[in-house]
Amino acid sequence: MTLARAWEEAGRFDLIHAHVDTSAFLMARYCSTPVVTTLHGRLDVNGVADLIDRFPEIPLIAISESQRRWNPAANWVATIHHGLDFSSTAVGEAAGDYLLFVGRITPEKGVVEAIEVARRTRTRLVMAAKVHERDEQLLFEEQVKPAIEDGTVDWRGEIGGEDRDRLMAGALATLMLGAWPEPFGLVAVESMATGTPVIARRAGACTETVLHGLTGYIVDDVEEAVLAVARVPDLPRHEVAAEARRRFSVERMVDEYEDAYERVVTAAAGNGSPGNRGLRSIEGTPAVDLLVDAATEERRLPRSAGVSA
Fold it and tell me: Residue 272 has what pLDDT?
C-alpha cells in the first residue's frame, strides 16, 4: 500500500527515490515519474540478482562496489557509500585495553572468531550486541556465555548510540571478522570516526570502507587478526578519525545523491517522456493491480537459500 500511495502521488514530484529494495521495480519501469532505487541488502541470494536481470533499464544505486558485482550489466547510476553525522562523535585520545564487538550474535558477524582472537591475544573483549532470534540465543548459549564465565567477554547487551560511541572511542580496535559479504557495514565507519581502527575480514564492503594500514587492517583469517591486534597501536587515532570524516560525511553523501538524481532526471527527459518504457500499455491500470503483477513476476524466479542482511 505504501508503493501504491507513492505511485498515485507520483505526479507531484520530479523524481521518486525508493528504499524498498526490489519492491519498487515495476513502479520504476512504468511510472510516469522517474524512479531510482537504492538497494540496501545482499543481491546474491533469494533470486534478487535474477530479478535485477529482468529489469535492466531501471536506474539503480548501490551502497558498495561489492554489493553490485553480480549484476554488471544493470543500469547502475552510481555507487554511493553511506554518510553519517559526526558532529557529536568524540575521538578517543589513546588506544584502550580491550577489543570491541558490536552487532548481532550471529555466525556471519564473526562472533566465534572475535572470541578466539581475544583469547589468543589475552585481551578483554567487550561485546555490545542483540540476542533476540532463536539462532542468536543458541549461539549466545553455546559460545558467548562460556566466554563471559571465563572472563574473556565483558557482556554489555544492547546499548544506545552514545554508549556505543563511548565504547568505540575507548577500545583498542573494533573486530568485524564475519566471512559474509556485508553490503556496507556502518559499524566500521562509526568506529573509525572515534579514532578506533577496525580489524575486518576481507569480505564485502569492508574492503572498501577500511583502508589497510591506515584506518585499520583487512585480514584473511584469525592468524592475521591476531597479528593485526599487535599492530593497531601504531595507527595514529587522529588520522583514523580524520579519514573517516573525510570519506563518510553526510555532506559528501548528499552531494553524490544530488548528482545521481540530476543524471536520472536528465536521462528520463532525453528518452522523450518523463517515465520509463511501457507506460502506454498500462495506462489506466490501478497501481495496486500493477503491484500484484510485480509480486507475481518475482514469484516466478528461482529461489536460493542465503543469509539475510
Answer: 57
